[in-house]
Amino acid sequence: MLIKKPSDIPSSEITDEQVYVNRREFMRKAGNIGLATAAALVIPSACDAGVPKTAIAAGAGEQVKDKLTSFEDITTYNNYYEFGLDKDEPSKNAHTLKTSPWSIVVDGHVAKPATYHLEDFVKPHKMEDRIYRLRCVEAWSMVIPWLGFPMADLIKRVQPTSKAKFVAFTTLHDPKTMPGQRSNTLDWPYKEGLRLDEAMHPLTIFATGLYGKPLPNQNGAPIRVVIPWKYGFKSIKSIVKVSFVETQPRTAWNDAAPSEYGFYSNVNPTVDHPRWSQAKERVAGEYTDRLKLRNATRDTQMFNGYSEVASLYAGMDLRKFY
């Protein structure tokens, strides 16, 4: 299903990506070869050949008005410090990551804790296509056609107890294949977390692919989180552990610089990063200087435009709980 995105961005045609729009050809090539082609499970019928390139948001009757970021930009301009600090380094270095076999531990306050092989973690769930805008704290954004399933489906499956108030996530820790983990840039492994109601929100997903293909290593293979109303660093990559906990979990960037990166990290144009404004943003692939914020010309939208999540924070001071 296609998910409605912010409606006040000028409309334009979706970027041509042959594999994405030609579902039948992709399915023919992918065949039935299991999770090695997990994305084959999540190609939406709306991507059939011949469907107009202006997508329709399911149930909304409105055109999706954002232009998709090109596959090249999505896969060559990344934040993934385990593979380098510069945006182009993950695509050059992440080939060392071995994504099969892959296991995910689910533990904590749940009735059904388990260690899953990736196939068993993914297969019971109905896979969907989600076109989401991802906004990064450095004031750049992308529009990405994700492939995955709602996190709520997994949560219902493992049955949290009444003690579970938060969900904590952990990335693979393997300095041999993740060279950035040999540095002290962060306290490895990378950790993130959500309140349980945030994790249960229909917009929150586990993603296994993009543009009709399995996730590239540099984008968080083989499975990652995507939370479109929060800054990108909350969408943790290469997950090996999901824990249901009673108290707010530690998170990588909040530990490293608590005055700059809060636990919630909702996209909010009224709360600046201490070293730059968050009132404007720039779109990846549509600017000439990727490093300088002077090219940020588009107004940042509250919650990245996903206003349906506002009720999660009713009565909260979002300057204090940034």
Write up what this structure looks like.
The protein is an alpha+beta fold. The chain has a single domain, classed as Oxidoreductase, molybdopterin-binding domain (Sulfite Oxidase, Chain A, domain 2, Alpha-Beta Complex), CATH 3.90.420.10. It is built from eight helices and twelve strands. The strands form two sheets. Strands 3, 4, 7, 8, 9, 11 and 12 form a seven-stranded mixed sheet that branches. A hairpin with a 4-residue loop joins β3 (128-135) and β4. It is globular, with a radius of gyration of 19 Å. Mean pLDDT is 83; it is low at 1-16 and 19-64.
Tags for this entry?
322 residues; five-stranded mixed sheet; globular; single chain; 12 strands; 8 helices; alpha+beta; disordered N terminus; Sulfite Oxidase, Chain A, domain 2; seven-stranded mixed sheet
The H-level CATH homologous superfamily, spelled out, is: Oxidoreductase, molybdopterin-binding domain
Rg for CA atoms: 19 Å
Q: Tell me the number of structural domains.
A: 1
Q: What is the CATH topology?
A: Sulfite Oxidase, Chain A, domain 2
**Poorly predicted regions:** 1-16, 19-64
Can you give the mean pLDDT? 83
Biggest β-sheet strands, sense, barrel: 7 strands, mixed
What coarse outline follows from CA principal-axis ratios?
globular
CATH class: Alpha Beta
